[in-house]
């Protein structure tokens, strides 16, 4: 029994010691807080602008019928590979075939009228005006036939290039209007290029230029990086999101990507970052573009100041406003500080 009581007492003592050891040290007023100070330097290096988006191809086609009608057959499904010239979809031909036949009959009648008017004009029975009107009627009939025959050709959809079907927007039996997209297709020929579509803020869009190099990572290929460059900048904001579209052309060597894969691009912009650069560990309470840091001008006391974050790259934070006139930033020991704390710089 005595042994059990002794063991229980020792356990309480050990628990108390461990608790005290893990408690945060509290510095009393006037006590120096050891901190690590780093000089604040101007940011003159090139900035890596990080943005995410989805993969697509440069050549994207929305395929539609030139005339309206009822879909007779759609021969492909989403994800199918297609060859250039392959038949993809057709309309029911009853209506357009009837239009072609009517136009052909109209040509036959107009030719007969023209021939009769020509003979009568030669015999001085018909007037010159009647002869000319018959000739004009025959020409109009031929043009009408050519028009409906042309429309008949586009009552079928053929693949404009080698590629694959991304989305089927209509099915067999549906009534569609002229020009309404039926199939969404992406080309995948040797000449087609893979692009990562990004949505940037107005400030980031202004910093990016066509031709800027980029490093791209794709979630589907962990541990691999791909080279790229900015190939296109949109001159108008997206009405739905308010962001500006930027396309990064990605070079895939042996890997085979797919439409819609998620990727991140680190774009190296040529415009130097204006302001100051500090270590990521010095930043406190960051919220969007705003944050706080502790600074020191005399290496004896600190001051908490609000800063405006321009961007974050790797372990470096670029500050556009808030550090002007200050000499040092606290990079270690910030949790023990308060406004105007006395400090002891660590070597």
Q: How does this model look, in words?
A:
This protein is α+β, with helices and mostly antiparallel strands and 347 residues long. It folds into 3 domains: 33-45 and 274-345, conserved putative lor/sdh protein from methanococcus maripaludis s2 fold; 50-58 and 193-272, Elongation Factor Tu (Ef-tu), domain 3, CATH 2.40.30; 62-185, OB fold (Dihydrolipoamide Acetyltransferase, E2P) (Beta Barrel), CATH 2.40.50. The protein is built from 4 helices and 23 strands. The strands form 4 sheets. Strands 1, 2, 17, 18, 19, 20, 21, 22 and 23 form a 9-stranded mixed sheet that branches. Strand 20 and strand 21 form a beta hairpin. The protein is elongated, with a radius of gyration of 37 Å.
Distance between the termini: 55 Å
Spans of at least 5 consecutive residues with low confidence: 1-24
Helix proportion of residues, in percent? 10-25%
Percent of residues in beta strands?
35-45%
Number of strands: 23
Largest sheet: 9 strands, mixed
Top CATH class of the largest domain: Mainly Beta
CATH topology of the largest domain: OB fold (Dihydrolipoamide Acetyltransferase, E2P)
Gross morphology: elongated
Number of helices: 4
Mean pLDDT: 82
Query: What's the Cα radius of gyration?
Result: 37 Å
Structural class category: alpha+beta
- Total number of domains: 3
> What oligomeric assembly is this protein in?
single chain
What is the CATH superfamily of the largest domain?
RNA polymerase II/Efflux pump adaptor protein, barrel-sandwich hybrid domain
